[in-house]
């Protein structure tokens, strides 16, 4: 596995959780709760410790399922933490990441419920299976046994790099003896849309095979983006795992080195207009 | 939900017609059977919408579960748009969704 994998795994977002003011018991002043969030983890994996921390400050009898909010926006727990941060924060001003915690008025319309850790696991495994379907026609996932599936999730849940990558490396092998994946699992987040298409790792141009690059993928999905980039570079940003790789980077390389634990390459594209 | 009968043309070319895709429902694991399996649906609809629609059509009780699967493999989250699933996983011009009232493919 690449040294990139370890560096990304160690990538943390300092977060400061605060209980919503209207949910605080009279005469109670809860301190904020600080956590270093792993980029590939999920917010609701921290529910128990956050609830334990705030419980004595909450009005009893009003506790529903937890949900999280940042600047008035409900955070979708089923996105990895790093993606959520890239979608709505500016690292130059928004660190630590101030997240408001709610235990009342669950916003049913905005997010799905997360009744427990099992729900996060089954969501994670489902996204992983989708990624494997694209990469290897599900052959890798199907070749693993139950305890290997469990090990993968357990490694992610407990933030254990070796345990996770011991299994995850199998998903990084090429499809059917080749060096590349059949298709690259990519999701592009742009103007409240999620764009997902089939991206093979190579394309044919002038009778020769070439790598499909980040530029190819983005210009295919958002043709107007590069006109904008030429005109107003400073207002357009492309973020993968909090960084901006060169546009000529092959998607195959990005997928192998910069995918999240769910094996998807989550790409945030925003302009000043769309980020506001 | 529009069904797969031909919708009469209005003749108004300025109105952009929403893009539609063909959904094929397949029952699995003892779930109730749908009499009409093939539907034409706007591609911007989500899995959450399909879930609500199917629950209504199959007359499921609120306490009954319903699971939807693509490629008999994974359960897409409720916010996924049908159009993107169609782009990645359709075969022969159809997106096949398996539905079950119990978890079928863990």
UniProtKB/TrEMBL annotation, chain A:
<keyword id="KW-0832">Ubl conjugation</keyword>
<dbReference type="InterPro" id="IPR048939">
    <property type="entry name" value="ATG5_UblA"/>
</dbReference>
<dbReference type="Pfam" id="PF04106">
    <property type="entry name" value="ATG5_UblB"/>
</dbReference>
<dbReference type="Pfam" id="PF20638">
    <property type="entry name" value="ATG5_UblA"/>
</dbReference>
<keyword id="KW-0072">Autophagy</keyword>
<protein>
    <recommendedName>
        <fullName>Autophagy protein 5</fullName>
    </recommendedName>
</protein>
<dbReference type="InterPro" id="IPR042527">
    <property type="entry name" value="Atg5_UblA_dom_sf"/>
</dbReference>
<dbReference type="InterPro" id="IPR048940">
    <property type="entry name" value="ATG5_HBR"/>
</dbReference>
<dbReference type="Pfam" id="PF20637">
    <property type="entry name" value="ATG5_HBR"/>
</dbReference>
<keyword id="KW-0472">Membrane</keyword>
<feature type="domain" description="Autophagy protein ATG5 UblA">
    <location>
        <begin position="8"/>
        <end position="103"/>
    </location>
</feature>
<dbReference type="InterPro" id="IPR048318">
    <property type="entry name" value="ATG5_UblB"/>
</dbReference>
<comment type="function">
    <text>May play an important role in the apoptotic process, possibly within the modified cytoskeleton. Its expression is a relatively late event in the apoptotic process, occurring downstream of caspase activity. Plays a crucial role in IFN-gamma-induced autophagic cell death by interacting with FADD.</text>
</comment>
<feature type="domain" description="Autophagy protein ATG5 UblB">
    <location>
        <begin position="183"/>
        <end position="269"/>
    </location>
</feature>
<comment type="function">
    <text>Involved in autophagic vesicle formation.</text>
</comment>
<comment type="subunit">
    <text>Forms a conjugate with ATG12. Part of the minor complex composed of 4 sets of ATG12-ATG5 and ATG16L1 (400 kDa); this complex interacts with ATG3 leading to disruption of ATG7 interaction and promotion of ATG8-like proteins lipidation. Forms an 800-kDa complex composed of ATG12-ATG5 and ATG16L2. The ATG12-ATG5 conjugate interacts with RAB33A; this interaction is bridged by ATG16L1 and promotes ATG12-ATG5-ATG16L1 complex recruitment to phagophores. Interacts with TECPR1; the interaction is direct and does not take place when ATG16L1 is associated with the ATG5-ATG12 conjugate.</text>
</comment>
<dbReference type="InterPro" id="IPR007239">
    <property type="entry name" value="Atg5"/>
</dbReference>
<comment type="subunit">
    <text>Conjugated with ATG12.</text>
</comment>
<dbReference type="InterPro" id="IPR042526">
    <property type="entry name" value="Atg5_HR"/>
</dbReference>
<comment type="similarity">
    <text>Belongs to the ATG5 family.</text>
</comment>
<feature type="domain" description="Autophagy protein ATG5 alpha-helical bundle region">
    <location>
        <begin position="118"/>
        <end position="173"/>
    </location>
</feature>
<keyword id="KW-1017">Isopeptide bond</keyword>
From TrEMBL, chain B:
<comment type="similarity">
    <text>Belongs to the ATG12 family.</text>
</comment>
<comment type="subunit">
    <text>Forms a conjugate with ATG5.</text>
</comment>
<keyword id="KW-0072">Autophagy</keyword>
<protein>
    <recommendedName>
        <fullName>Ubiquitin-like protein ATG12</fullName>
    </recommendedName>
</protein>
<dbReference type="InterPro" id="IPR007242">
    <property type="entry name" value="Atg12"/>
</dbReference>
<dbReference type="InterPro" id="IPR029071">
    <property type="entry name" value="Ubiquitin-like_domsf"/>
</dbReference>
<keyword id="KW-1017">Isopeptide bond</keyword>
<keyword id="KW-0833">Ubl conjugation pathway</keyword>
<dbReference type="Pfam" id="PF04110">
    <property type="entry name" value="APG12"/>
</dbReference>
<comment type="function">
    <text>Ubiquitin-like protein involved in autophagic vesicle formation.</text>
</comment>
């Amino acid at each position: 596995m690449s040294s990139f994998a370890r560096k990304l795994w160690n990538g943390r977002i300092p977060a400061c959780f605060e209980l919503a003011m209207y949910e605080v018991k009279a005469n109670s002043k809860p301190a904020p709760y600080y956590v270093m969030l792993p980029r590939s983890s999920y917010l609701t994996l921290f529910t128990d410790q956050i609830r334990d921390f705030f419980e004595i400050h909450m009005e009893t009898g009003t506790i529903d399922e937890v949900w999280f909010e940042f600047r008035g926006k409900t955070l979708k727990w089923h996105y990895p933490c790093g993606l959520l941060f890239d979608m709505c924060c500016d690292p130059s001003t928004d660190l630590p990441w101030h997240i408001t915690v709610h235990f009342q008025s669950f916003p049913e319309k905005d997010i799905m419920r997360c009744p427990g850790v099992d729900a996060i696991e089954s969501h994670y495994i489902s996204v992983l299976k989708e990624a494997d379907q694209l990469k290897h026609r599900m052959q890798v996932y199907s070749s693993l046994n139950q305890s290997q599936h469990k090990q993968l999730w357990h490694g992610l849940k407990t933030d254990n790099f070796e345990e996770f990558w011991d299994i995850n490396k199998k998903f990084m092998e090429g499809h059917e003896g080749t060096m590349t994946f059949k298709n690259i699992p990519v999701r592009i987040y742009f103007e409240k849309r999620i764009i997902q298409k089939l991206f093979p790792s190579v394309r044919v141009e002038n009778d020769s095979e070439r790598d499909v690059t980040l530029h190819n993928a983005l210009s295919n999905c958002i043709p107007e983006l590069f006109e904008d980039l030429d005109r107003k570079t400073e207002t357009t940003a492309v973020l993968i795992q909090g960084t901006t790789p060169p546009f000529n980077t092959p998607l195959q390389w990005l997928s192998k080195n910069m995918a999240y634990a769910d094996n998807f390459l989550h790409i945030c594209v925003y302009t000043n207009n769309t980020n506001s | 939900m529009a069904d797969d009968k031909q919708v009469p043309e209005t003749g108004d070319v300025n109105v952009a017609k929403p893009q539609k895709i063909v959904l094929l429902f397949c029952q699995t694991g003892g779930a109730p059977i749908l009499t009409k399996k093939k539907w034409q649906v706007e591609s911007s609809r989500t899995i959450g919408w399909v879930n609500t629609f199917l629950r209504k059509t199959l007359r499921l009780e609120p306490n009954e579960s319903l699971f939807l699967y693509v490629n008999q493999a994974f359960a897409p989250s409720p916010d996924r748009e049908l159009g993107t699933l169609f782009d990645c996983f359709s075969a022969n011009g159809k997106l096949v969704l398996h539905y079950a009232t119990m978890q079928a493919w863990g």
